[in-house]
Amino acid sequence: MSQARIVQIRQGILKDNDLQAASNRAYFGTFGLSVINLVSSPGSGKTALLERTFSDLGTQLRMAVAVGDLATENDAMRLKKVGAHAVQIVTGTICHLDAKMVHNIIPQFNLAELDIWFLENVGNLVCPSSYDLGEGFRVGLLSVTEGEDKPLKYPTMFRSLDLILMTKMDLAEAVGFDKAAAYASLEQIAPGIPVLEISSKTGLGMDSWYHILKNKAIEGKEGKV
Ligand SMILES: Nc1nc2c(ncn2[C@@H]2O[C@H](COP(=O)(O)OP(=O)(O)OP(=O)(O)O)[C@@H](O)[C@H]2O)c(=O)[nH]1
Ligand SMILES: [Mg+2]
Questions:
Q1: What is the count of structural domains for the chain?
Q2: Domain enclosing residue 210, as ranges
Q3: What is the per-residue pLDDT across 40-85, written as a single tens digit (0 to 9) for each?
Q4: Nearest residue by C-alpha to atom 29 in ligand 1
Q5: For a pocket test of ligand 1, which of 38, 39, 47, 56 has the largest count of ligand atoms closer than 8 A to its C-beta?
Q6: What are the DSSP E strand ranges found in 59-153?
């Protein structure tokens, strides 16, 4: 297939996705629902963040999660153990969630009774960046174990984010994390982006994260997301 034809097909897929994402977004708006898309490299701590969030905040906010992985129901099972209503989307060979997958999973949730719906994306710093899911807030995790230059290597993803969570801060010293270099990378690619330093293990920074979530829930109800 010619390069021009491949580009054409890809543009067609993305256009269809954008249309579905716009429809998802309008639908979420009718409930005043705040939808948060969590993206990162594999293993940077998305599910651990959600486990702690559901444990600590589950009685204060009405939350649920759809979680994408190529294979296994492991993450949904982990999240169910902390009382979350969690549904796994198994994507097979597809390296990202798309707006249609999100649309198709909606009947498994009672969205009208939620404040926040998390979408844990497939661990990948490339594909998910191009797929709008209809979310109101996109949060990227950058763990101290994966390298300070990730924003420089995956600029499309880091430019698409609303907030960065610098995760696994409890391991920073042990792995010789160069925080100044990480911030310099972020500043180069996404100047001014808010960053929260957190540890799902020790609880560092989690209060600030919860504060953001509570505000997102309020903004949703006020029709601001
Ligand atoms: N020390 C430490 N370990 C963490 C922290 N957060 C996550 N981990 C560990 O990192 C590993 C991967 O965490 P997950 O939460 O599964 O990562 P993920 O981003 O959901 O991974 P995928 O869904 O596969 O993309 C697990 O062994 C976690 O226990 C943290 O704050 N501190
Ligand atoms: Mg996970």
A1: 1
A2: 3-221
A3: 999 999 999 999 999 999 999 999 999 999 999 999 999 999 999 9
A4: 48
A5: 47
A6: 63-69, 85-90, 116-120, 137-143
